[in-house]
Amino acid sequence: PAAAPNAVNPLAELSFRYRPSWDPGRGVIAAYLCVPMLPITPGSGQRWHAALVLQHDAAALEKLDFAMLDHAIEVLEKLVRDKRRLLITVPVRFETLSASVHRRRYIDILRTRLSSEAASLLVIELVRVPDGVPEARLLEITAPLRAHARAVVARLRPETTDFTQFAIARVAAVGCDLSERSGSEVALMQQMVRFSKGAAKAGIATYLRNAGSLSLAAAALGAGFAHIDGDVVAEIVDQPRGIVEFSLLDLYAPEIKG
């Protein structure tokens, strides 16, 4: 049957922005996370993370994963043409790649549309990874991805402390996202320390998404997280802005100026 005249494509107003990520060890911002955005209400200027808007629409979320990949490839190839060595991280839901038909399509896009130079700048981030996923299942997904990207990383719950299967699957780093966490900062910091210690035991690097305060960013630094992002580090930008020097002093600069 024909679509209703007033039917709205949930991705019609999709746009992409970038979350800068700080590498404290190098003292630079040289990686950017692709963040898909949608208006809170159609036609509004105010935008929100698309995955939150579409969280109950599985079909739209699958389309979102592929739309992000399409956009990232365009950005990566432009970076190559401009001779800019920035890392672009593209999230993709574990559920999407668990379906063999979607996984084949995703890998085929990487294989046919991404140059080797651009692939060296691409980091693929698995999100919404279920607890206790078997290592064989992880390997089924990560092995073909690694052939077409610089690295594969995984965003997990902050409560996670055992990363054995991720080490076996050669996941380069594991991260946690504080944007939807509740509880005291002290409790979050304790989780971050346990998360980092567990990852170190497995020999895997760590990263933190959406540090919501200066104290949480400082705690992540103290816990050994290799990459940290959030508004306290740098706000979301329209386009990757290049490699930016960013030190501990820059992190505390607003406090110092205040």
Descriptive report:
With 258 residues, the chain is α/β, with parallel strands linked by helices. Helix 8 (185-202) runs parallel beside helix 9. It is built from ten helices and ten strands. The protein starts with 14 loop residues before the first strand and ends with a helix. It has an eight-stranded mixed beta barrel, surrounded by four helices.
Features:
22% strand; alpha/beta; 10 strands; disordered N terminus; 258 residues; 8-stranded mixed beta barrel
Q: Layout of SSEs?
A:
Layout: E1 15-23, E2 28-39, E3 47-49, H1 50-53, H2 58-81, E4 87-93, H3 94-98, H4 100-113, H5 116-119, E5 122-127, H6 135-146, E6 151-156, H7 164-168, E7 173-177, H8 185-202, E8 205-209, H9 214-223, E9 227-229, E10 244-245, H10 248-257
Parallel strand pairs: 2-4, 4-5, 5-6, 6-7, 7-8, 8-9
Antiparallel strand pairs: 1-2, 1-9, 2-3, 2-10
Major sheet strand order:
1-2-4-5-6-7-8-9
- Number of discrete helical segments: 10
Which term fits the overall shape?
globular
Roughly how much helix do the residues carry, as a percent range? 40-55%
* Structural class label: alpha/beta
Question: Which percent range describes the beta-strand content?
Answer: 15-25%
SSE pattern, N- to C-terminal: EEEHHEHHHEHEHEHEHEEH
User: Distance between the terminal alpha carbons, to the nearest Å?
Assistant: 61 Å
Please mark out the parts with pLDDT under 50 across 5 or more consecutive residues, or reply none. 1-7
Q: Give the averaged pLDDT, no decimals.
A: 89
Strand count: 10
Oligomer: single chain
Radius of gyration over C-alpha positions, nearest whole angstrom: 18 Å
Sheet with the most strands, sense and barrel status = 8 strands, mixed, barrel
